[in-house]
Amino acid sequence: MNGAQDMGGMHGFGPVVPEPNEPVFHAEWEKRAFALTLAMGMPGGWNIDQSRFARENRDPAEYLSMSYYQIWFAALEAMLKERALVAEDEIAAGHSLHQAKPVQRVLSPADVLKVLHRGGPTERNTNTTPAFKPGDKVRAKNINPLTHTRLPRYVRGRIGCIDRIIGFHVYPDSNATGAGEKPQWLYNVTFSGRELWGPDGDPTTKVSVDAWEPYLDPV
Amino acid sequence: MAHDHSHDHDHSELSETQLRVRALETVLTEKGYVDPAALDLLIETYEKKVGPRNGARVVARAWADPAYRARLFKDATPAIAELGYAGRQGEHIVALENTPKLHNMVVCTLCSCYPWPVLGLPPVWYKSAPYRSRAVADPRGVLADFGVNLPKDTEIHIWDSTSEIRYLVVPMRPAGTDGWSEERLASLVTRDSMIGTGLPKSPGDVR
After folding, report:
1. Number of domains observed in the structure of chain A
2. pLDDT tens across B113-172, in order?
């Protein structure tokens, strides 16, 4: 979706302000919101692309006014309610009021490190061959789906070069809608600063994105 | 991100969030969906154990051991796993080599993708609108915000983390470090130098 999350090239946000000796978390609730989000992945049954869409799928003004963990927490609430795992009256009451739905698995303390160490690799096997090879010129498609996509607006319609075939990976545009992983070939595609930003671009810079085959047209 | 909020407003908004987070944790615990001890362990892991010291060890080894360096640039994920770092948000890692002619810098314009096993959780600025918006269009301006000014003929390569590939910048080894142990070398490697918004410390900084 063309939401506020797709920020590449926007103006007006001001300078980057690093915080010296920044703590990992800035408040107790951030820790809990972070851990709840990670722990609910298993019983919640959603995938990473559905989580990302739940975070970005909101009014741009709201998105920009929230801190990052507020966005995470809002997405967690939304996904729990969508799946009827939690209801608003329960959050208001601060207690469970309805019977729990059966869930596949709950994260136990004994499993935490194992689960983190395993992660969620997205590379899949295939017997297909990639359509593009390193050195090929490609144009990023001009697509504007209302649903989740990982093709940023600032490269759409622009011509880049295939630098590397990364592999055959889960396709977020499909996975985020619950329509399955539908893995696709994934490429590293590089664009010159001038191609992306015209005469305002810095000719000594280039930008790479990782782009799935359905995002690309041959040139 | 909102600059026009008064402090009072910020505080009341925060306490509201705080209450809601606490309420949701209670609900999820009562329903048996989460085990609070697992939450504590998740927090402890990312607050105390997983952080940029991991990445610094990887970089220091790449500086000290040419065979390791070759393995790291050929396929970073198994090379990094040799040091015990792997998993969530680092399932597929690519190492990027800085040279006198090329400087690499990593961003996630669409969210906050970051190589957790080697750098830990991202700092606020990495997730912020100023960084995500400007890194791809004005990298030299962003570097200036960090006090970094590269020679004009150094090419800057920005890597926008749009897939599950995570990028780790391997900065250039500072001069004057011949014969240093890996541990000593690691003390020069800053978090920002592995994102590409900073440079390693020089030997004089750590003496």
Report:
1. 2
2. 999 999 999 999 999 999 999 999 999 999 999 999 999 999 999 999 999 999 999 999
Q: Among all residues of chain A, which has the CA nearest to that of B143?
A: A16
pLDDT tens, N- to C-terminus, chain A (219 residues):
999 999 999 999 999 999 999 999 999 999 999 999 999 999 999 999 999 999 999 999 999 999 999 999 999 999 999 999 999 999 999 999 999 999 989 999 999 999 999 999 999 999 999 999 999 999 999 999 999 999 999 999 999 999 999 999 999 999 999 999 999 999 999 999 999 999 999 999 999 999 999 999 999
The answer on B168 and B187 residing in a single domain is: yes
Range of the domain at B18: 7-48
Do B66 and B167 fall within a single domain? yes
Q: Same structural domain for residues A168 and A110? A: no
Determine the distance in angstroms separating the CA of A117 from the nearest CA of chain B, rounded to an integer. Answer: 4
- Considering the entire predicted model, what is its pTM? 0.96
> How many beta-carbon pairs under 8 angstroms link A with B?
274
Whether B1 maps to a domain, the answer reads: no
Is the CB of B7 inside 8 Å of chain A's CB atoms? no
Identify residue A219 by its one-letter amino acid code: V
Nearest CA in chain B to A4: B110
> Is A9 a domain residue?
no
CATH number at residue A90: 1.10.472.20
Identify whether residues A37 and A111 lie together within a single domain: yes
Residue A179 domain-assigned (yes or no): yes
- Minimal C-alpha gap between A110 and chain B (Å): 8
Q: Which residues of B are catalytic?
A: 108, 111-113
Which of A61, A83, A118 marks a domain boundary?
A118
Last residue of a domain, one of A63, A84, A118: A118
